[in-house]
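Structure request: HTH arsR-type domain-containing protein, Oceanobacillus sojae.
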Amino acid sequence: MQLDRIVNFHKTIGDKTRIRIISLLKEGPLHGQAIAGKLGLKPPTISHHLTKLKQIDIVYQRRDKNTIYFYLNKDKLERMALEITRIGDNEMFEKFDITEGEKAKVIRNFIDGNGKLKALPAQRKKKLILLEYMLRGLEHGKTYKEKEINEHIQQYHQDFATIRREFVMAHFMYRQDGIYELNPVEMWPV
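Returned structure:
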């Protein structure tokens, strides 16, 4: 599971009304009017929150004649809630066990005499080694604007947009609102 999905899940359920709806649905299915009545809120408000919960597949609906009932997807809720405890586990982030000698060989093959990346390899293991190499000079605990990351990457490669995206997708970095930060080394794939 990707880090973005975990963050999205927790952002979505991190609302008092949504937690109250989940609590009500744990007891069994309810229709929107019943939920609104129990929570003392208007039906459009409940509809909005149910839509958000359906987007992350925590709530689903079934029609019974003219009434739509909402059900809690308990298995999905439990699975998603537990995912945060698995961050860093091998099942979540593929970890490569690579020796320093292997890393040095890949770097020699793909980095020219000026320290520039000749090409980004297609093989994932080699690509990860080179991405880690290009993180040199960035500090843990420090936040960077997108422009700063672009300038840093251009020391190694002209296609900063691709490399920046690869940093995030490989979990080397975290991005939010154009601000970048290195993830803990334990989350890195190499």
